[in-house]
Amino acid sequence: MENSANLYNLPNEILLKIFKFSQNHKNLSEVCKRFYELTTFLNEDNLSLTIKCKQLINPHFDLEKILNDSSSIILTCNSKGIKNFNDKFDLFLKYHGHKINTITDYNQTHFDIRKFIHLMPNLEKLSYKCPTTNEDEEISFDNFKDSSVPLKNLEIFNDPGKVWTIFKIFNIEELTIKKKFQVDENFLEFFACCKNLKNVVIEKFQDVSSLLEILSTKQLESFKIIFELDKEDDDEIILKFLETQKNLKSIKIHQISDKILSYVCKNFKNLESLSIRLSEDRKDEIFLKINNLKSLKTLTVKAYSRKQIDFENLCTFSLPNLEKLNFDGGRFEKFLIKKLADNFKNIKSLKMYATPFEYYEILLEILTHFNQLESLSVSTSLWHLVTIPEEFFTTLHSNPNLKTFIYEKQCFDKLKDKMKLKMTRDFPNLENYPEEVQYYFAPKYDAFSLKHFLLDLTDVKNGNEILKDCSVIFNTGTGHNVARAKRDGKKEITIDIKRYFYDQQFKTILKTPRKLKEITIVANIQLIRSGAVHYLEYLKSIGENVTSLTIQKSRQSDQQQSMAIFKNMNAKFLSKIIESFPNLKTLKLEISSPKLVEKAVMIKNTKIEEIILIASDENYSNRHYEHSEYFKDFFKHFQFPENSLKSFKIISESYKRNETFDNYAILDFLENQNLLTEFNENRSNEERWENGKVKYVYTYEALSE
Amino acid sequence: MDIDRPSDPQVSVVSSDGTMFHTTLKSILLSGTIKDMIEHIGEGGVENMGAIPLQNVDSKTLEIVIKWIEHHKDNIQPTSEEIKDKTADFIDPWDENFLEMDLDKLYNLITAANYLNIPQLLWLSTRKIAMLIKNRTPQEIRSLFNIEDDWTPQEIEAVQKENQWCEEK
Lengths: 705, 169
Fold this sequence. Notes:
Chain B: Residues 120-166 form the SKP1 component dimerisation domain. Chain A is an alpha/beta fold.
């Protein structure tokens, strides 16, 4: 009898349990094909890598960098609990105010735009909540009088009363009214100045007639009324208003009556966007009239649950220009997807809310049949949330057009990293991920798992424009963030070396980036010394291709981790590190403390062309060392190779305004070392906004002629 | 405590080949599968429920399982989640000795522990196999566990080349 009790016959789940005990999966992977496949799965529970996408701002991002790099900023500002907010805000605006084009300002009342608007010369959109003012208080217009702020889009959260008048200097094109207010003299004065008003959104209003009567004097392009209309009187008022409008391209009416919908479908043949909530007692044939709107590009239909949207008839509509289709409410059957896709071949954006019962099957149908889709958003009710099975990913059709994909997060919660990677691969141009794509990598990884992970990542990155600039950080010092990638615009792998680097496992992991050209060592060298031999051996093994080396201290605010890298360090060891890179052309060193303890050493890299030394104050520390002391001390201990050096730069970044460095010491150094016998020198000062403070940056540069 | 009932009532289980075993409720509850079954019986059902049939466990293996659960009935057992964080370094000498058995028995024990959902026993038995694999070459693993080598020379060469990446020097 054949022995059925064979290791090979155990189910995958058990073999994986056995393999997980092993630290080295290499031998296992070579036993047979099945074991090879299984070992590639071992990494999945543990990989921790965070890929951030363009639009997401989160704590892992360097906010300073974003602020400095971005050409426009959307400001959501809450001043509550911030001491001296006005002073800080004033300083912030001084540096970044010109980049602000939108302010969303929902929940605070302390921040008075009137005081700051002159500091935001490019502001285009403002969500405004009027500060509570005393009736008798004189409103200051000083900053508004000569304003050239191009404000066009105004959103009003409360009745501004007298404040209306301050907005009359702007050329408002789009007005959104969020709360009820009185059409009084102040409003009329403001309204009279809105020469180019094109779009109006009314979210809350009681006396519609007075407002619509005034709006009738303008020819609008877009009209949206979002609050409940249930009186017949209101119907008459809206009809009367619509009769005055000839140019409307976009209409949104929250609860549209049959009467108004009939009028719209008959009289606005050029309508491009229609958004309606169907009334419960509507007649079925009214819905069919939408088919008359041949210019329609966007259609949004909301329904009451008791009266369904007539999806079957919708699938027969002839709307050749339709690109965006949004449903809210109603049951959507899986078989309709194909019909819908066949009928509306140009659909680029599809949104379905609280609709599908067979959530993942419908999602799959949509992704299969809507080939032009650029944006997809599908949600369902709590009762129909199911975990997306792996088949979903294996049968997924790749769609290079898809840029936005919003799905029910819970359904994807238990997804394996491999599946997420596949998704990232199938939708290479996805810009708005519904959540950051995260991969967890626990401390108990092994080199084999990491290899597979990195191969997958490389594969994804190669085919994905958005992710291709990701870099990976191996942070061996902390548990869950062992490996994480962040988007920082540099094609580099940063190795954040902490106390575990001498570990054998770590040594193997470090062999990953063999072909690196740029390398950054974020390090506490004092700790590194305890494993110096392994470390230098490793650097040599990867060092041949490296042409650019940066050694910097950890950026984390944890004081212990940020200990100065040159504090009490061995200059010889640093020179050994540098020498591990025989083809180095650029060397960037961040130095922090003037306590080098050994004799001068010669750095023998003969190909170094550029050296940059940086001394920078730490944000959390109130101590300010004299940076010139750092440099002097550094010069005492290092000798650089002659001849090859073409550029030598010293940068001091200090929160202290008077910080300067001693130019004589630099010149002495250069002279003593016979460096740059003929050079041009440049000096520059610059101020930078960092961590809520101004940082003063002094640069000295010597370039060979 | 309910004075009318014994503190740890007797429970019977029947193996796939029809052998009946008797053990205590406390012991048998170490099996997540049986615990679920008993919870579904409802109020006062334990004494009257009769023997529990275990179609996937033969009598030889069930005997081994019962020996293990009776020994550990008073120990707090880790959950499946807790097991995940357990290191392989140390195990109870009794368990070490208990697991001294031939491979066939060990495979059957693993399958039974998995079916009966006894996380600690599954952990111990899979660890035992992992220890046997440790430090063995691919060929040694194949011989020990009677596994067929299904690689072609070209394939294995490619895999080995790929694996050079994580080889220790």
